[in-house]
Each structure stands twice: as C-alpha cells, then as structure tokens.
Amino acid sequence: QVRLVESGGGLVQAGGSRRLSCAASGLTFSRYAMGWFRQAEKEREFVAAVSRSGFSTKHADSVKGRFTISRDNAKNTVYLQMRSLKPEDTGVYYCAPCFIYSDCRPEYWGQGTQVTVSS
C-alpha cells in the first residue's frame, strides 16, 4: 500500500521560507519520479517534479526561481524548498509519485500539508 506523508506546512509571512517534506513508503521510491502539487480554491495544480535520480527537475512558471524540488532516495523522501513566499502560494500541498517527471500524472496522493502565507 502506497503511503505518502507530507509535513512542514504552516503559517508564514510573505517573503519568508518554508521547506516541505514528503516521506513515501509502500513503493520502490527510486523507480518513480516525484511531484508536488497544490490546491487552493481552484483545481489542483502542478508545482514541481523531480526525476528518479534527482538530476532533472521541472518547476511551474509561477514558482520558478523561488521553489526548488529535491529528493533523497536513501530516505525515501522528496522535498520542496520554498522561498520568497507570496500570499498566492497559499494552499494544501501534496506530493505524489509519477512515471515521468516532465509529465507528472499521479495516481496516489497523500493527505497534504497546509501552507498559509500572510501578507
């Protein structure tokens, strides 16, 4: 059974930083690309994805230059370092495994972690 546990969310002021973590179990972690998505009032949107090795990444235009995705295959964990946060970054952040980092289409989701950016 695939299990994804996101953590690290919370309340942060605009301009601040936060690092999210996602611990995965129930799958061979290194065989999957990993992605981060977020959802506010509208539909869930792609944020970033990292290849199986960690060498290749893709970030949404809205977070490019501010967010960085990375992974540690030894710890079965994927991270999202968020800097220069804006109120529009507010939402529930989810991690998910996918087959291709450049076109991440998850089938499993964790419970998410709430990030709230105050202005």
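The above is record 1. Record 2 follows with the same two-line structure.
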Amino acid sequence: VPLQASGGGLVQAGGSLRLSCAASGRTFSTNYMGWFRQAPGKEREFVGRIRWSDGSTDYANSVKGRFTISRDSAKNTVYLQMDSLQPEDTAVYYCAARTFGTTMYTDWGQGTLVTVSS
C-alpha cells in the first residue's frame, strides 16, 4: 500500500504538530499502522501504532502522554498528533503499514522532517 506522510516542519519547544499518513491503495489487509522516527546519527525507533480495526494504540515510553495516534477510516489516513514537543523529538518521521499474518512493517512512507528548536 503506497503511503504518503506529510505535516512536518519547524516548531518551537513546547509546540505542536500533526502529521498525516494517507494510504492510497487497499487497506483491508492492514492490521497496524505505525509511526517511526529517525534522528540524525541514530537508528530508527518505534514511536507508536494503531490497530486499524478498532483504533487501539500503543506508544513508546518516550512519547506517551504527549503524542496521540488516530485514524480516519473513510479517508484511509492515520494521524500523529504531537504535543509538548522537545528538541529531542527532532527526526524524520515515517509511517508504515503492517498486514495481517506478519510481524514486520512492509510498506513505508517517504518520511517527513520534524525540527524542534529550543
């Protein structure tokens, strides 16, 4: 499923951004949609995920309570609402899809850069 992430930009510490991830193809085989990020010089890390069927979510401890993932099934779009952003949240953010029967995220968006200034 082709994915298109958008919404990144520059924000001051304490500010908010909302990222979007639109799936342009069929999503009936999607079990989870995940958000990941990769900061400069660091490995990619898991941010959170949402189960497509019921909207249940899981988050990394580093973002729990500040980030919220939601979905709009009619638009085949997943959102990452990021509040209380900190400079350490600066990274390229990626969305990805995981289908039923797998443990791997196999479809990835191109990434959107989030820069948080202090």
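The CA atoms of residues 3 and 23 lie 5 Å apart.
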